[in-house]
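Proteins fold reproducibly. Take a tokenised chain:

. . .
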Amino acid sequence: MSVWEQLVGQSPVVEQLRRAAAGEGLTHAWLFTGPPGSGRSTAAKAFAAALNCEVDDVTARGCGVCSGCRTVLAETHSDVTFVRTEKITITIDEARELVAKSGDRPSTGRWRIVVVEDADRMAERTTNVLLKAIEEPTPRTIWMLCAPSPADVLVTIRSRCRPVSLRLPPVADVAALLVERDGADPELALQAARSAQSHIGIARRLVHDAAARERRSATVRLPLTLSTVSQAVNLAEQIVKIATDEAASSNEERDAEERSRLFETLGLSPDDKLPPSLRAQVRQLEEDQKRRAKRSVTDSLDRTLTDLLSFYRDVLMIQLGGSVELVNTELANEIADFAAKSTPDVTLARMDAVNTTRERITTTNVAPLLAVEAMAASLI
């Protein structure tokens, strides 16, 4: 399986990157943009693998089976650095380390490659640290930045990068991938792909996690019971609880594994008393886990609100008589009844309230429950 087969429904992008990997139009800095679920990080990784592919035929690079491709895809290649943050932002110290590392010559591959998956999570002064390195990199260095849209990156950075624009793949293509690669039931795969709005990662989670499917179903049904202020407050509590429970379910096992691994590295068993000289290392791990938990809740809440937004999107489609397929087809009758009780203007206002709340939660330190309560009150 070549590295390009991972890019579902991205034929124009695949062709652009294939040509660049063969040496046609290759440049030192790239900006991959696209909505969540479009696969911008996957595209950057596939491109990095093709650039350090070991086959001699330049038109066949990105084979997916050579050592170069396999180690890049596994994120173990010595010349390819992947940067993603589980905190709120990438710090300026982390940016400085990247710049220093980007100056090294490649040791085994053709290129030293730096892939920044969360380029939109850098403050302006942090981004400015990268500016000089991106503008004038060393001869064998390539930067790849990933962000939801060009507007999420400083103009001084994006003006120095070649753009790669991705789109969400068709629902049918995502469903086919889940059936072929994950062995999913075709009907369940199609429903998951539609519910995830073509986000491959979320669709895969919905296929394999029945609890995740139940949480999503509970979210999209919430507006059907909303008519009073007290119900709005209750809705807000439910939304935050759904997001918090989802984040906790994904973090608990990982936190325990990390703690166990650290104790093993320190030569301790989980029941041993921690010596004072080692407490700082455990404290650092706990602080990192707390920061990750905060980011996880924020991301989970954003996904929950996106699911809620899909309900109002379907309502608007019915009100406008659109021919676009509903996201929540299992609620078609309930959504039609709901749509008949309001107007498109009201629905747009509600969608705007949800999007405003998403922005507040992801870009400010507002208390999530207060933000969601204010939103829920405006949905009545």
